[in-house]
Every structure is written in structure tokens, then in C-alpha cells.
Amino acid sequence: TDEPLVVFTPSGKRGRFPVGTPILTAARQLGVDLDSVCGGRGICSKCQITPSFGEFPKHGVTVQEGALSEWNKVEQRYKDKRGLIDGRRLGCQATVQGDIVIDVPPESQVHRQVVRKRAEARDITMNPSTRLFYVEVEEPDMHKPTGDIERLIEALETQWDLKGVKTDLHILHVLQPALRKGGWKATVAVHLGDANHPPKIMHIWPGYYEGSVYGLAVDLGSTTIAAHLCDLHTGEVVASSGIMNPQIRFGEDLMSRVSYSMMNKGGDQEMTRAVREGMNALFTQIAAEAGIDKALIVDAVFVCNPVMHHLFLGIDPFELGQAPFALATSNALALRASELDLNIHPAARVYLLPCIAGHVGADAAAVALSEAPDKSEDLVLVVDVGTNAEILLGNKEKVLACSSPTGPAFEGAQISSGQRAAPGAIERVEINPETKEPRFRVIGSDVWSDEEGFAESIATTGITGICGSGIIEAIAEMRLAGVLDASGLIGSAEQTGSARCIQDGRTNAYMLWDGSAEGGPTITVTNPDIRAIQMAKAALYSGARLLMDKFGVDKVDRVVLAGAFGAHISAKHAMVLGMIPDCVLDKVTSAGNAAGTGARIALLNTEARGEIEETVRRIEKIETAVEPRFQEHFVNASAIPNSAEPFPILET
Ligand code: FES
Question: What is residue 480's predicted lDDT score, i.e. its pLDDT?
Fold first, then answer.
């Protein structure tokens, strides 16, 4: 035919259209992802495109000047009032006049990519639960006795092809003034619904609403609750904030909270109230930080371990405290915020990722969503290190999961000078193998202890203890410097030739810092400290090793360390201790808060929710407690690095 050819980049989609067809219409017909909130009325500017002119041998097109219509009044008015980037046009106004190549910039795509910084991480494709639609509603008329909401719903259907849209009473409260104020034009936020819920009107604004709606990605940990507030249109994180989990007053760790609820009637309800109140305080804080109204938060995704999951939902965690650790439900849950007493938009939705097993929670599912071992070509071991290590091993073929009771030693608990990672904590340690003298770095200062300016740099924080990453480096460095043997015993001053090795009861300790002259603490690494770390790292390693057995392999291609702690430990030191299997060092990467990222993916892309539910169904769960080989691996892994297995890569 003679109709002009329209080629869209980057999608490469192409088709012929009659002269005069708006670019937005052509895009829609070809299924090209081009955004629009105003439905082509020249108001929202979400449909911006960049036409290209000249020769395009690759596409077999030559684009002449005049292949796109002149600026029309609507477009010109928009440009004069609001401005447009040079070369940009409004796709709903510019029409086809000849063969043309049209580029859709990322910000004009509904399903734009939110790029993640790590090379091996998957990007997030936007596909949010809730979107904004601008509509023109028919005015009421004495001859047609329909209600305003019925005419609004009809407008959504005819102008946006949204079928079966429902509403709640709270919309009826504000509907009539909004429609009249906007001159029968309005912007509506519609939750697009899911398998169990029809699309629903969440919010209405008179006329065209410039702003956005928001969602929360919440990582509900036993120690801290961290939330990201995300713009549901751009995917951007507009504010992040965290608080201590207020349940800490009922018990530091999970099991003590489970026992609190067993020992105290109504204890579980007290903890449910505490965590929900904390959450509401956090949401108020984060909305204030972003300068938005809390009622604009229309969606929230939560990830947490099974005990937190149950307590947040108001389910007694009793069964999780004893074998066989049965969950009330392992499925993903789609609820309303009001059911959980959350003070955000009154009809906001809440989504909880599925749990993998009684010990492997929705947080591990979120890590799986973020790190996608099920999509990996090579065999990847993902460990989320906390008081319980959650371990995933797999590739495209299959994924196995288990959890291993590492205990709180990695977080600095059970360590004589241990503390949480906070200013004043020693976080990095090096020991000179010749002199056996240490140097270290303290959180809050970026100067090593043997460098100039150290005293001033720690003047405010002081040296208060050693955190999880610090103790790991200290012990690994002690082993490398030869003050510690493979079984975990510290040599005496005579054996090591170092006055830093001091007698400590019937064993020896290594003096890292003597602050007694300044009235500060003395920081030593003691034999019980080393035992605690040996137990924790043996638990971690044997969990990983057990999964390797089940997979039928004796090495992995890469290791991903997830969790806040994973972000701070050095791969080399972790391997010197035998925490993780032998692996090429630069194949050991840190994923930061992968559980939080998984929550963000599920928030911004509703399809990812179905995807992770499917993946979790396919993940094979291994229960370490009933596996005899776990014990065997544990005993071997108590040595540094291991009494039975070689670490050939480490040794070279
Ligand atoms: Fe809104 Fe073009 S679609 S300005």
C-alpha cells in the first residue's frame, strides 16, 4: 500500500498507517509501550516521543522533513506553557504524514526499567498495581437518572477500556464535589486488580492531577523494620527510613519472642500491636520525609521471616516454635491495609510474599526474587546472613533452599566485646604476619588505627566494641598471622612471640586494643568468641554444603552474600574462615539488602508476584535438622577453614 510506514525504536515494531494517524494511536495498535494518563488530550505529556529524520538503512526507511505533522495548537500550547525537551513531540498530537522513525524514550514507557546498579542484578520492569487515568465524565441530566459514579465508571470503560471497575464508600464521600470542581474532568487512581480482586477506584482528583501515587516496600526484620517509599509511576524511591522493631522489648531474638507468647497469655497479641504501631509510626515518618500525604500510599509489600510474618498478621507463632514447624499458611497473601490496622490509604492493598518453609520465610522468597537463582546459567549460592542463615543454591534447572541456625554471633552477640554495627565498633581488622601487630578501622571514622589523625577521628565515638564483620576479619587475620591454629586455639605469648597473646583463664586471648589508659574498654578476642564464631560459620557452611550434596556438586560457580551483614564482610576473610565454600574470590559478591530489593520488585511489578509464587512452589526445601550429613559437615566445618574439605582456590 501507499500508506506511510511507522517504525518504533527501541522495540523495532512497525506498521503502515493512514496519513493523519496520531503517533499514540499507531503505538497502541502495534502494542508499543507508550504512556498516557490524559488519554491523548495533550495535558499529561507522558506520551513524549522523539522523531528521527534522514536515512535509516537498518529499517529500510528514509524519513523526509514533514513526515510528521506541524505543531498543532494543543501541542504548541503545552510547549509554550510547560516546555518540551528539544526534538521531543507529544505522541498524541503529532500525526503521521510520511514514513517515519519514532523513538520512545524510557520515561515515556509505562513498563520502563528501573535500573539496578549491580551488573548481575536484574532490572525492575515497571508494572505497578495502581495507575492514574484522566477521564471526561458525562454530566448528569434530568432524562437519565444514573448516578455520578456510574457515569465515571462508564467513562473509564469507554475511554480506557477498563472493565468491571468497582468502588468503595470512601470514594462516594468525595466524588460529587470533585467532579463538579473539575468541570466533569477528573483524574482517578485505579488499582488494576488481581486474580482475586476486580479493579477498584482508589482516589479521585478534580481535573488533571499532576502528582503520583505511592507504594511501600517493607522489610520487616526481627531487629529492624526498613521501608522504601516508591513512586508507583516512575518507580523511584522517594524516601527510605527504618526503625528498631518495637517487639525487641519482648525478646531479642525470634525464639525468645515465641516463648514470650507461650509464657504470657495474650503475649502474641501484644507483640502484634507493637509491630503494627511501630509500622504506622514509620509510615508517618517516611511520608513526612517525602512530603506526601499518607493517603496517597495505595499499595504495600511486606517481606519477613515466618515468626514476624505470623506476629504481623496476628497469628500465634506457637507452632513455629516446635517441630515440625508448621506455618498457618505458606501462600502469598493479598489483604487490605485496614485489616492490619495500617494507617495509609483506607483501601490500600497489602501483599505478603509466600514463605518457602517453616524456617525459610517470605524474606528468603524476596531474596530469590531479587537474585533470581532460578534464572542463572551458572550455579549460584545465595546466603542471607542473619541470626538464621537462609541459603539458596541453584540455577535454571532447579533451586534448593534451607535455613541454618547460625545464631546471633555474626551480629556481634555472644562475643565478649561484641556489639551491633554502630559508630564506635571495630569493623575492619588487619594483623601483620611478621610483627603480629593489629591495625583496625572503627565505624564512624575512615582512618586506620595506625594512621595519623586516628585519635581525633574517633574522639566522638570512642572505641566501644567489635561488630560482626570486625570479629570475622579479626579471627581470619589471626589465623593468617599464625596466632590461631586450625582447631581455633590461640597460641600463648611464648608460642607466637607476641605480647598481644595474653593468658585468659585456662586459654589465651588476643589483645586487639587496650583502652584502659584512657578509661576505655579493652578489646580482646577470646577463645569463647572464637568458639561462637566457629559454631556460627560451621552452621552456615554445613547448610550450604548439604545443599551442594543434594545438588550433586562439590563446588559452586559464584556466591552472593545478601543482607546488611553480607554487605560488610570481606569475601576473603569469609573464605579463610571457611564460612562459604571455596570459590574464585571475585565471584563472591554482595547483594546488599536483597530481601528489601525483592519487596521493591514485587511492589513495582505485579507480574513478579505471580512469578515468585510459582518459583517458590518449585523450590525444593531441605530440612537441615533431619539430615544426618548436616552433623557430619558441621563437625568438619568447625575447624578453620575445614578439617575434611580442601579449599584449593583459597590456597593459591
Ligand atoms: Fe497526555 Fe499526550 S497522552 S499529553
Answer: 93
- Domains contained in the chain, number: 5
Query: Domain limits at 296?
Result: 216-352
Q: What span, in angstroms and rounded, lies between the C-alpha atoms of 532 and 207?
A: 63
Which of 75, 90, 136 for mutating ligand 1's site (highest number of atoms within 8 Å of CB)? Answer: 90
Residues of the chain with pLDDT under 70: 1, 117-122, 652
For residue 413, what pLDDT is reported?
80
Distance 41 CA to ligand 1 centre (A): 5
The reply to whether 10 falls in a domain is: yes
Query: In CATH, what number is assigned to the domain containing residue 367?
Result: 3.30.420.40
| pLDDT at res. 195 | 74
pLDDT (tens digit per residue) in 314-366: 999 989 888 888 999 999 999 999 999 999 998 899 999 999 988 888 999 99
Domain boundary among 61, 77, 108: 108
Q: Which of 32, 35, 45, 109 to mutate to test the pocket of ligand 1 (most atoms within 8 A of CB)?
A: 45
Task: Assign residue 14 the CATH number of its domain.
Answer: 3.10.20.30
CB 577 within 8 A of CB 541: no
- Checking DSSP bridges between strand 333-336 and strand 349-352, what pairing results, if any? antiparallel
382 and 296 in one domain? no
Q: How many CB atoms lie within 10 A of CB 628?
A: 7
Question: Ligand 1, closest atom to CA 78?
Answer: 4
First to last CA, the chain: 68
Q: Which residues sit with their C-beta closer than 6 Å to ligand 1? A: 24, 36, 38, 40-47, 90-92
Backbone angle region of 302, left / alpha / beta, with phi > 0 → left and psi within -120 to 50 → alpha: beta
Measured from the Cβ of residue 515, the count of other Cβ atoms closer than 10 Å reads: 13
How large is the ipTM? 0.99
Answer yes or no: is 211 within a domain: no
**Residue 121 confidence (pLDDT):** 65
**pLDDT attached to residue 144:** 81
Query: Is there a single domain that holds both residue 505 and residue 602?
Result: no
223 lies in the same domain as 347: yes
Residue 231 resides in a domain: yes
Tens of pLDDT, residue by residue over 449-469, are 999 999 898 888 889 999 988
